[in-house]
């Protein structure tokens, strides 16, 4: 297959620019918030609460959001999502105004940040399903795997640069003006999005009752062994392998590398994942996908354990880099499974379930890591998470031989015949 097949479509290139700008802004914002909150509290549990504040609305609204996405036009819905994120970014910019700490109590600032993060969770519940559904309306089915790889690579590249710039910008221009940069990127994404025309609604059941729609979506996901297995495996791995949530603690109190070292640590996993994803455009991962996914999750757990035990900055960076590289394999395979095995009329609902399983487990993982660090200590919490990830991969390999034998080559050939 042509490794640049998806890039030959102008609208897809515009879509990648929009996705890059949004992921860059969102990932940078999360890092700046983490730094500001830990600087205010010096409590690792407060970092976990950031994730909890976002995951509560994201999970509670996920299924309903999927129903709405399947019922509405995707381009305009994405415009609404990005507009909502811009408003939240503007609020965080104002909250970080110099001198505000002198006139407001730290708790007031902290709770205001949590409130805006909470609102961001509602936005995110719609954002993921909308983006997932829009891709399928921009490129033909036969290049879904290639488009999914480039989309995921763009996501990872933005995840590299966002955290890295966040760490350096905190050092160079401070939290306040870092928030201004984030707001600017959200407006940039909004402007570019208008270059993509509106798309047709593929769902033939417009006006379908909400509960029937949600029931059909859940029935499909839980009935499809490949989708359900991939989501479950990744969810547990991310939930217990959420060491990145504790990076401010490592940067400030264990490795003593400051905000710039924090940026490097935070970017290392995404650098590894980006290299994996760019490589996968030439060396696809769809053959023996089940085995590759299980091996990737197991290797991820090993990397997290090494990072947790390390007291050397360079070793910590390498461990995080390798964790990102194998996580990139997991992400590509999962996204390819979802794109190939999801009907057009159910993409919003399936993507919403995916966000509940995997996307929201990032925040739940952050809360789990923060709580475990509070109870067990930071190092013990990270090592525990890595061990649980190893256990999950090993158990899945033993109890689910059908998932272990999963191969996506046949699905790709069928889509090529359809086109």
TrEMBL record:
Keyword ATP-binding part of the UniProt annotation: no
Predominant location category: membrane
Recorded topology in the membrane: Multi-pass membrane protein
Keywords: Cell membrane, Membrane, Transmembrane, Transmembrane helix, Transport
Cellular component terms per the entry's GO annotation: plasma membrane
Superkingdom of this protein's organism: Bacteria
Positions of transmembrane segments: 12-33, 45-65, 77-97, 109-138, 150-170, 176-196, 227-251, 263-281, 293-322, 375-399
Pfam family, one: MFS_1
Single GO MF descriptor: transmembrane transporter activity
Localization (cell): Cell membrane
Stated name of the protein: MFS transporter
Organism: Flagellimonas chongwuensis
């Amino acid at each position: 297959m042509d490794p640049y097949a998806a890039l030959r479509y102008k609208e897809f290139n515009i879509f990648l620019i929009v996705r890059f700008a949004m992921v860059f802004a969102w990932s940078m914002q999360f890092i700046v918030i983490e730094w500001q909150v830990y600087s205010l509290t010096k409590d690792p549990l407060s970092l976990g609460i950031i994730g909890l504040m976002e995951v509560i609305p994201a999970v509670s609204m996920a299924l309903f959001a999927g129903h709405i996405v399947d019922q509405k036009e995707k381009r305009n819905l994405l415009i609404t999502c990005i507009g909502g994120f811009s408003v939240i970014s503007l609020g965080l910019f104002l909250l970080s105004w110099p001198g505000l700490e002198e006139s407001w109590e730290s708790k007031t600032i902290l709770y205001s940040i949590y409130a805006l993060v909470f609102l961001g969770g509602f936005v995110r519940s719609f954002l993921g399903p909308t983006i997932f559904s829009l891709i399928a309306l921009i490129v033909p089915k036969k290049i879904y795997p290639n488009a999914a790889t480039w989309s995921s690579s763009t996501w990872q590249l933005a995840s590299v640069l966002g955290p890295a710039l966040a760490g350096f910008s905190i050092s160079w221009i401070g939290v306040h003006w870092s928030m201004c940069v984030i707001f600017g990127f959200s407006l940039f994404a909004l402007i570019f999005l208008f270059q993509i025309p509106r798309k047709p609604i593929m769902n033939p059941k417009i006006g379908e009752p909400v509960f029937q729609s949600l029931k059909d979506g859940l029935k499909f996901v839980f009935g499809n062994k490949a989708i359900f297995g991939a989501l479950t495996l990744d969810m547990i791995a991310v939930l217990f392998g959420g060491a990145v949530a504790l990076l401010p603690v490592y940067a400030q109190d264990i490795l003593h590398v400051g905000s710039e070292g924090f940026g490097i640590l935070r970017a290392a996993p995404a650098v590894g994942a980006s290299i994996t994803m760019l490589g996968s455009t030439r060396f696809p991962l769809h053959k023996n996908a089940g085995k590759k996914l299980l091996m990737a999750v197991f290797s991820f757990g090993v990397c997290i354990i090494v990072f947790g035990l390390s007291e050397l900055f360079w070793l910590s960076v390498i461990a995080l880099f390798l964790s990102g590289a194998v996580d990139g394999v997991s992400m590509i395979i999962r996204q390819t499974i979802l794109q190939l095995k999801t009907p057009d009329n159910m993409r919003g609902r399936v993507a919403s379930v995916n966000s509940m399983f995997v996307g929201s487990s990032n925040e739940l993982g952050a809360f789990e890591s923060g709580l475990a660090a509070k109870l067990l200590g930071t190092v013990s919490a990270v090592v525990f998470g890595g061990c649980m990830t190893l256990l999950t991969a090993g158990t899945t390999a033993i109890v689910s031989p059908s998932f272990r034998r999963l191969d996506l080559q046949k699905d790709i050939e069928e889509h090529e015949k359809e086109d």
